[in-house]
Amino acid sequence: MSKFNSIKPRTTFNKGIVLPSLFFILFVSLVSSFFPDISDQSLETVKQFLFVNLNWVYVWAVTIFVLFLIFLVFSKYGSIKLGANDTKPEYSFFSWVSMLFAAGMGIGLMYFSVSEPISHYSDSVYMMNSSVQRAKDAQLYTFFHWGIHAWAIYGVVGLSLAYFTYRYKLPLSLRSCFYPMLKEKINGTAGNIIDMFALCSTFFGITTTLGFGVVQLNAGLVHLGILHSDEFIYQIGIVAIIMAISILSATSGVNKGVKFLSQVNIVGAVLLMLFVVVFGPTVFLFGSFSEGLGYYINEFFSLTFNTHAFEPETLPWYFNWTILYWAWWISWAPYVGLFIARISKGRTIREFIGAVLIIPSLFNFMWMTVFGNSAIWFDQNEASGALSAIASEADALMFKFFEYLPAQVITNTLVVLIIFIFFVTSADSGIFVMDSISTNNSSRSPKWQLVFWGALLGVLALVLLNAGGLQSLQTMTLITALPFAVIMLLFCYNLEKGLIIDNAYYQRGFSHSTDSWSGDFWKERLQRIVSYKDQKAIELFLKEVVQPAFNELTEELKKQNIIAEVSVFERPHRVELLIGHDAINNFKYGVRTQPKNISDFLINEENAPDIDSNKIFIPQTYFGDDRRGYDIQYYTKTEIISDVLKQYERFLSLSEETKNEIFIGTPPMM
Question: Which of 223, 366, 623, 665 sits CB 3.0–4.6 Å from 399 for a disulfide?
């Protein structure tokens, strides 16, 4: 038996997550492969129904994400660290930004940098506008789709995960983001379902991107003359090479392979962009970037809330671009958010949001301006509409674009290399994230699990590509974005709830009842601190300590010609001292029995005071002006009298000031 166990493959997979997820992934993939037309038609019908009838849900969800993150930046919560208060960032700023950028946008920048602006520019819906206005709007819409809104979607998931993982010390898992709502239930079936959703969404997103991207990479290799055609056999080779390198990178760890490739890629992308700036319409690009950025800022809120309800002729464009983008970014959010969270330990919330929203957005704006505006400029001035004519051929458009620039062989080679590395960085980080989800963020996963996820990605991508089922898989991914948008809204609620508790914990001072403590009676104080009271004990405290204190003070007030009354009430049991007035409000100081819930963590802790129940009782003060009371269980009779006098002195001081008349007196009847 022991010998068998020694050769049994070690695994850290959570069976409650992995087995149902694999069944669903294989089922959907097989249906999409064997019945591509039927599945694509059925899913497309569902997608169109959601986009047409529930597009406002996507709009409001994304809007809330943006406003929520902006609120956190300027709130008191912005200085909270993603980790312990003394935690330092694991990665340099450049490495951190490179990795989150490569995971977040990656191959999409190469695929859409020319094709999207050209598509907007040449779309028949806007052909009634002048060419200048169409060029400006093409840049504006591209900025809108690739800017702050896209990164806010990633930011909400990434921030929630990083906060609950590093601050609350929970697993790096989507289920952890529900801790304020579900508590320990996140470790059960509900948590498994949440992580299954994340695992399937991540797998489908990467699979479809890998499948469609291979087509563009194949087209580039054909354009360079390296391959002779786009036959399926060549695509098998491309996928095999990409996945082999991706698996090697993933198994070497985030600190090595993923980090290195991300840095190489960002450097290569910057060099390619600078080449286009230098040898393209340089002056036009600088001017159009400034104007486009201002146009975007000016139209920011108009774009954010615009549902095109009064422009029915533009609705098809709106559904096929803006809503599709919001759904696509949301569907990718589990994967990208998990990866961003993994590399963001030690950053403050303000630093995290600022970097995630601003830096990638600005880079995207520069990138899309350089490539998109250059393409439009060439189309207007040199190509005579040749680029607009092939706007629907996104796979070949980037390579066609470089025909209007010098050194075509070098630039096209660099483009192919960057596309290739983008594929690898997306795949290796995806492998890492999927293993993290499937193991509840285990840090000791065997390498064969990473190989398993990489091989499954490659095989299913090729099967679906060959059978024509990738479109169905992509459509289903977009459909699942709607329920996940609702889940993300709950992330915001839970994160805000967690931050409120966090801030209250670290900002909380000493108890009000400790203000006058000295070294006297310290043994009695200690005994009271470690003794948790039931209701009868607090009622006895009110009877033997609070009521005698009030009575003694009342007798002394009579000597000052001030009439005070002491009253005892039941349900809840309370004792109250009242000084009545005619012209001003009455002075009231009362103490009542107040129930209080105790954390299970403290009850189950062995080296802590013994507690028999989750509910204890404390003597809590209350006042005539409805201010929040406080616990006085540690007060002696003398200290209670002193506290009443403090409150009475405050009452008289406020009553002396004319500016407080509206608060201390009864307004005349009109």
Answer: 223
